[in-house]
Amino acid sequence: MIEVQGLTKKIADVQALDGLSFSAEDGKITGLLGPNGAGKTTCLRTLFNLLRADDGWARVDGVDVSVEPLAAKQTLGLFPDPFGLYERLSPREYIGFFAELNGLGKAAAQQACSEVLERLQMQDIADRRCKGFSQGQRMKTALAQAIVHKPKNIVLDEPTRGLDVMSTRTLRDLLLSLKADGHCILFSSHVMQEVSALCDEVVVMAAGRAIAQGSPQELCERTGQDSLEEAFIALIGSDEGIAA
Ligand SMILES: Nc1ncnc2c1ncn2[C@@H]1O[C@H](COP(=O)(O)OP(=O)(O)OP(=O)(O)O)[C@@H](O)[C@H]1O
């Protein structure tokens, strides 16, 4: 479970987070939905302790990420930008390296790596260098790296950015299967259709705050609208920076 309370962060002159509070439960996919500049990436970076909040706290399974960063990271998988893989490494080397970074011994890392390669049906590319990989192959490698240490909580920043339809569908299926296994999945997006299709819960963000949280249906009922897109516009008063 991921909980964020009163998170505040100023970057240069910009109030990127302004008292952000929400929670994301196990066995659910929670979407952070907000226009460009709403603070989604800043929130996820703070969760991963890449940024330190000015005020407020973030906890992963009850562990405060700034007080016990290593313990928090062991229960947290971060889906990185799939375009930034180490091209000289094969997925097996890359994923195994991250498994060891996350505290697994060599033998356990190799075992975990083989399991995740099988789960994501990557055996055919497991020992090829990442250089030249298609977007979908990169995305699978990046996701495998995020989940190899079996973190209970998985955080993804705009995971379908730049992916084609097939890769997006593959990712969607993977997230649904992780959810079925009881993981807590939190992802940021400004793509309405993706959030509607995947999320059990939606946190609507604007100007560094959460202005509403609920299931897509609850948000529609609360605003008296028929679609999440209309509900979102009603909540934030604009559709600027949102993609259909
Ligand atoms: N390093 C930085 N220097 C200056 N301003 C920053 C920096 N990082 C973030 N910001 C500002 O903080 C605000 C929140 O940015 P953030 O990237 O978290 O938004 P976002 O919701 O992820 O947006 P997008 O959907 O466009 O990725 C924006 O106004 C952004 O310009």
TrEMBL record:
InterPro entries: AAA+_ATPase, ABC_transporter-like_ATP-bd, ABC_transporter_ATP-binding, P-loop_NTPase. Pfam families: ABC_tran. It comes from the Bacteria. Residues 2-232 form the ABC transporter domain. Keywords: ATP-binding, Nodulation, Nucleotide-binding, Transport. One of its GO terms (molecular function) is ATP hydrolysis activity. Belongs to the ABC transporter superfamily. This is Sodium transport system ATP-binding protein. It comes from Pseudoteredinibacter isoporae.
